[in-house]
Design goal:
The protein is mainly alpha-helical and 394 residues long. The chain has 17 helices and no strands. It comes from Actinoplanes subglobosus.
Length: 394
């Protein structure tokens, strides 16, 4: 089938071949995300070193973005995902049996690279596969199934840990990655794959980046702030709960409610962007996240923190699929995978830098100062997105 034929697909048709493998893979990776720190401390790492080891997952994602884009262009999305799975399983086994923190850190970074390759492969495919009027819904659904996976994965991992200790979470992850790979192999190939035909001129990565440097400097910087806001939300909400002296169970409940609201909004967010333009979701989403962070210092108890958590969930939910949709809109037909790799790098840098910004400001000032600073970044992101996103055509 040609690329034009692929563009006639509906979201329901994309479900088994695109969304199902991604959901299973995300569930597997989600199962181990909370236990990496515990594995590191079990190997003798102090809390600071354990936090660095956990952060290597994000560093792997950052370092994997550009190579994944080049690989997708050369061998196609499906082969890229199969290669990522082939490395992800050994990486998980290495996490299980790592004799020291150094090997654990290397395995965690490799796992991040594999996750980046999977995410970018699906992003590149959907950019080609759906009609422009369905693009935001397709991207927000992809983001939604990923969030569902990362939300349910820890629960599956926790259940397995009751039976097999920390190894149980890694076994769930191995099962998830393996099952996603089997689904990918068994189901029919998607109608379009982004590999450059043999003999055709391959676009050079740095040429693509230079050609589109203005987009990456402007809208790409706004996307970097989006990534930072999203990641900081996951860090600062539990930290504020700890500063209030709340129990871990209460903090977990508030965090879970915020995440639940976030998940419920992924499809409405895509529909809003498709019908009323990208600004309609992007600007209020970042404004809400910014205001929520700014209000955090006024949350003096359970109900105040819960209210802020709900506001963060709404803001984050409205931004579901936003980064992928904007990247798809801005991507060129030639060198698309390479461009999307650079685009994802912008977001990944933000996601990696958000928690570091909170830690740095808190170290020299207070957590309240960090919350207000991040809140200001959210309002700046809303302004820049309004400025640089092209308005919807009537």
């Amino acid at each position: 089938m040609t690329g034009t034929a692929a563009q006639g697909q509906t979201l329901r048709q994309l479900g088994p071949t695109v969304y199902l493998p991604s959901a299973v893979f995300s569930t597997g990776i989600g199962a181990v995300a909370p236990v990496i720190v515990l594995t590191a401390t079990g190997l003798g790492a102090n809390p600071a070193v354990a936090a660095v080891v956990a952060g290597l997952l994000g560093l792997g994602q950052i370092s994997g973005s550009l190579p994944a884009g080049v690989m997708i262009s050369r061998v196609g999305e499906r082969r890229t995902m199969l290669a990522a799975s082939a490395f992800a399983v050994p990486a998980l086994l290495a996490c299980m049996f790592a004799p020291n923190v150094l090997l654990l850190g290397a395995a965690v970074a490799l796992l991040g690279i594999c996750g980046s390759a999977w995410a970018l492969s699906r992003h590149a495919y959907l950019t080609e596969a759906v009609r422009p009027e369905l693009r935001a819904r397709a991207m927000s659904t992809l983001g939604g199934v990923g969030r569902i996976g990362t939300f349910t994965g820890p629960f599956l991992g926790a259940g397995a840990m009751h039976l097999a200790g920390l190894d149980g979470a890694y076994l769930v992850a191995i099962a998830g990655v393996s099952l996603a790979t089997v689904v990918l192999i068994v189901l029919p190939p998607v109608p379009h794959d982004r590999a450059v035909p043999p003999g055709a001129e391959r676009p050079r990565l740095w040429t693509i980046i230079r050609t589109h440097q203005r987009t990456l400097r402007t809208l790409g910087f706004a996307v970097l702030l989006v990534g930072a806001l999203r990641a900081s939300r996951q860090t600062i909400l539990p930290l504020w709960g700890v500063s209030l002296g709340l129990s871990p169970a209460t903090i977990g409940l508030i965090y879970g409610v915020s995440g639940g609201i976030d998940m419920l909004l992924f499809y409405p967010a895509g529909k809003l962007m498709d019908r009323h333009g990208r600004r309609a979701a992007a600007v209020p989403a970042m404004a809400l996240l910014g205001v929520a962070h700014t209000l955090l210092p006024f949350a003096g108890g359970v109900f105040g923190l819960a209210a802020v958590g709900v506001l963060m969930g709404v803001g984050n939910g409205l931004s579901a699929g936003l980064v992928m949709t904007l990247g798809a809109d801005a991507s060129p037909s030639a060198g698309r995978a390479e461009f999307l790799g650079a685009w994802r790098l912008c977001s990944d840098i933000g996601q990696g830098g958000g928690p570091l910004l909170i830690g740095a400001i808190t170290a020299v000032a207070t957590l309240s100062t960090a919350a207000v600073a991040v809140g200001g970044s959210g309002l700046l992101a809303a302004f820049l997105l309004h400025r640089w996103i092209k308005p919807q055509r009537s």
